[in-house]
Design goal:
Blueprint (H helix, E strand, L loop, with lengths): L5 H17 L3 H10 L8 H21 L3 H11 L4 H32 L7
């Protein structure tokens, strides 16, 4: 039962690291890769929670540096949304990106494994 927490820690690290290094668009790539093998350990819902957790950690990291308040006020003011709402929407955005990519891959792999005519070889 010790490996259970790793099911959440590894994707959170992957989402946080790739987002920090390359940007938000890596979230669906990481989710799709994690969901790729048929019967993968990480389901779409799990990957969505992991992506949201990673973005919360990134937001907390920014808050510790003192930048988050100023940025959320500035961006929130520009689009006329309160800063806290902007943070919640950002975290939900990461979850939706991860869930949609992983669910798509799960659907494709399920269909390919169910229909032998779709397999190559």
């Amino acid at each position: 039962m010790r490996a259970r927490p790793l099911l959440f820690v590894l994707p959170v690290i992957a989402f946080a690291l790739t987002t920090w290094l390359f940007g938000w668009w890596t979230v669906p790539l990481v989710a799709a890769q994690a969901a790729w093998p048929a019967g993968a350990r990480w389901k779409a819902s799990t990957l969505a929670w992991c992506a949201m957790g990673a973005w919360v950690l990134l937001l907390l990291w920014d808050a510790a540096g003192g930048r988050l308040g100023a940025v959320s006020q500035m961006v929130g003011g520009a689009i006329q949304v309160p800063g806290p709402v902007l943070m919640v929407v950002s975290v939900l955005f990461a979850g939706l990106l991860a869930w949609s990519a992983a669910a798509f891959v799960e659907g494709v792999t399920r269909r390919v494994t169910a229909d032998p005519s779709l397999r190559s070889g």
